[in-house]
Amino acid sequence: MRQGFAETIKKATETGYYDCIVVLACAEWTYWTWGNACRNAKPKKFHFDEWITLHNNPEFEQFVIWLRSELDSIVQLPEAEQQRLKLLFRHCCQLERDFFTYAYQQS
Predict the structure, then answer these.
(1) CA nearest 11: which of 29, 25, 23?
(2) SS3 state at 43
(3) What does the alpha-carbon distance between residue 5 and residue 12 come to, in Å, rounded to a whole number?
(4) Separation CA 33–CA 45 (nearest Å)
């Protein structure tokens, strides 16, 4: 699973700008959503509290907003490229889902 995401990131860096945006947007948007949902939580374990702080702050939110705006600009690309990037986004979403499913099963 981790290897699948690592391979996807590596391929994105070799393929181009929008591939990198898609991979980053999927991951960071997911983490911001979780961090924002947990913003009022005060976990006792330091690393959980740090995770929430890292993914729920104004600077990180602005980064996610920027990534999403870059995703929106994909509509300027040829239709075939748009479709390829949509498939990549779905693939990244599945990798994120698999990661969290695995994590929950381990706890």
Answers:
(1) 23
(2) coil
(3) 10
(4) 20
Q: Tell me how crowded residue 45 is: count the other CB atoms within 10 A of its CB.
A: 8
Residues 70 and 4: beta-carbon distance below 8 Å: no
In the chain, which ranges are continuous DSSP H helix? Answer: 2-15, 17-37, 46-55, 58-72, 79-106
Helix (H/G/I), strand (E/B), else coil: 107: coil
Prediction pTM value: 0.87
- Residues of the chain with pLDDT below 50 are none
* pLDDT computed for residue 2 by the predictor: 58
Q: What is the dihedral of CA 82, 88, 90, 92, to 10 degrees?
A: -150
